[in-house]
């Protein structure tokens, strides 16, 4: 059966986001796989997301039954799938394949060990900006979704763990020592270093 327009757009978005990523594989129009972790390591696993005809109005089918996951016990698979299903049920009505893969990447150690991953999924830095608002009838409206470009920019700014790179907010000490009397953005934000420079010069 042919894909709906919404499903076709999501396939195009996934192909664009994961272009050149060897961890992502599209099995067919409705089935997508992502290798979470480093290939060959014991902590890695292969997550498969299959879309039913009514997707995204109903949650996708999630599977860890691939031969690659033979090292995982059935209890760990069940616990991991339960956490992933909670994520998918919370996002019904929205394109969620990327979000499921992203959740699995961020929490793969907790998923492989069967621990709860909710705490780490809600960490604050840097969080994906989402807006949730109340409608007139008191219910919750859908979260605002990021575009492909916004997701790509967010991925470019952060590393594979979703954290900013080391030293992103460091100041240029050499510049402050060489030109102590010239105010700069870094010296304005660091009056202590400016004072030390003036004392030494």
Automatic annotation (TrEMBL):
SUPFAM superfamilies: UBC-like (SSF54495)
Pfam family, one: RWD
PROSITE patterns according to UniProt: RWD
RWD domain sequence ranges: 9-111
Gene3D superfamilies associated with the record: Ubiquitin Conjugating Enzyme
CDD domains in UniProt: RWD-RWDD4 (cd23817)
Domain of life: Eukaryota
PANTHER family in UniProt: RWD DOMAIN-CONTAINING PROTEIN 4
Name of the protein in its database record: RWD domain containing 4
Organism: Eptatretus burgeri (Inshore hagfish)
Lineage: Eukaryota, Metazoa, Chordata, Craniata, Vertebrata
């Amino acid at each position: 059966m042919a894909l709906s327009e919404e499903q076709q757009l999501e396939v195009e978005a996934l192909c664009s986001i994961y272009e050149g990523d060897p961890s992502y594989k599209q099995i067919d129009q409705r089935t997508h796989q992502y290798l979470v972790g480093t290939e060959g390591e014991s902590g890695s696993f292969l997550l498969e997301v299959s879309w039913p005809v009514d997707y995204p109005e109903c949650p996708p089918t999630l599977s860890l039954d691939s031969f690659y996951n033979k090292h995982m016990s059935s209890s760990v698979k069940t616990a991991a799938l339960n956490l992933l299903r909670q994520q998918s049920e919370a996002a019904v009505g929205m394109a969620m394949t990327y979000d499921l893969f992203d959740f699995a990447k961020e929490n793969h150690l907790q998923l492989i060990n069967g621990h709860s991953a909710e705490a780490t999924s809600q960490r604050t830095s840097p969080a994906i900006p989402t807006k949730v608002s109340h409608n007139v009838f008191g219910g919750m409206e859908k979260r605002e979704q990021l575009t492909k470009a916004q997701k790509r920019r967010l991925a470019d700014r952060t590393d594979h763990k979703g954290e900013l790179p080391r030293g992103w907010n460091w100041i240029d000490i050499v510049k402050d020592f060489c030109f102590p009397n010239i105010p700069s953005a870094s010296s304005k934000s660091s009056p202590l270093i400016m004072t030390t420079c003036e004392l030494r010069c």
